[in-house]
Here is the input.
Amino acid sequence: MIAALKRYPGRNCLLGAVLLALAGCANIDARTTEYVGAPHAAPTSAATVEVLRSEPTRPHARLGEIVVDASVEPPPPISEVEQKLREQAASIGGDAVVVVYDRIQPVSAYVSGPLWDRDIRTIEGRKLKGIVIKYQ
Here is the structure.
């Protein structure tokens, strides 16, 4: 791609546009932690994993938890966030994931401006936590 850009006189503009487009993309990052001493199940199909907002009444075991970090501007489609939850839960054998925390909150900060008049600005992100369960 870089070789192709060298052939065009407006390559700096094109490269800048590509980098800007990549920087503006919505992103989703997820981390899964299996609980120590919990049952360890074989992976399941992500298509069968349920995303729940409250703990089910039917008997189940807790397998672990998933923490999802997602961008806010631009936000990813909620269907992609749910799919990420399903994939992560399926990877440790879950039948469902119960969302226990879903907030938009500051995830970092930066300082801008001259030394005598600095301004602290925050960057917000979406934090989501789910408990992976296996029905018994």
Notes: The chain has one domain: 26-135. Residues 47 and 67 are 20 Å apart (CA to CA). The chain has a mean pLDDT of 86.
